[in-house]
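Aggregate trends can hide what the representation actually does to any particular protein. This step matters because it turns folding into a mapping between discrete strings. For completeness, the protein is quoted in full, as a sequence line and a line of structure tokens:
=====
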Amino acid sequence: MDGGERVSSDEPLHALADALRRTRGLLLFVTGAGVSLASGIPTFRGSDPGAVWKRDVTELGTRRYFEEDPAGSWAWYLSRFEKVFGAEPNPAHRALVEAERWQLGRGGQFLLVTQNIDGLHRRAGSRELVEVHGRADRVRCSREGCRFGAPSGSIPRDQVDLRAFEAEPRREHVPVCPACGAPLRQHVLWFDEYYQGHDDYGWERVCAAAEEAELVVFAGTSLSVGVTDMLARSAHARRVPVFLIDPAATEPARAIAAGAETALPMLVRMLTAR
């Protein structure tokens, strides 16, 4: 990635700040679960004790599992979302709002692509945002073509009555679409689905950013998911500088070995200092 060098430990944030100041075109930030860890939401592939991958549940986040056991799928997501809906934006989310304001305020371009479905970037105030894996605060019809299903429909979660299912999580209590009666599903990208499956995933915008970005910053992501791999490969092919903010950073990038909730506020202070 643009030479593959790793920035020495005493200067990575300064190097990133300098690179940001030189970037007047599209500045692309890409965030993963590590950004929300400080908000109390466990990561998927991280090393924290609550990491979802440690519980051997990779098969649960699939359309196949939903079709086999819709009640089991709903029950797992509801247990997962308990922490999501109780979380608040942390300093990393707020710092990215400031970074967006700083870049746009000087006439530059900015885009934040997040793999997170928790909505914390949106709640913190991010505007130039793509939630590429969907949204936990919405559900949709499982029947493609329904006005509440793919490719463009969804329903706010708080408009769905889940009381019967929560009292007795059985198949017959799985909430159904108000338009067609098909079972409702989570409005998220499952592991056996494609980014192009719903307009809300913003895949065309992500692909355009991959061709236009002048600087890419990954924060709190393992770089092992489809979207991060695609963006990293595109940056490498175009010789675009890439930085990685992650406490366990090992990828061949300009690496800042720190948590996003620490590194991003420090970075913004460097950018906005007078």
In short: The longest strand covers residues 134-141. Residues 161 and 175 are 7 Å apart (CA to CA). Confidence is low (pLDDT under 50) at residues 1-8, 50-56. The chain has two domains: 1-41+89-133+195-274, 48-86+137-188.
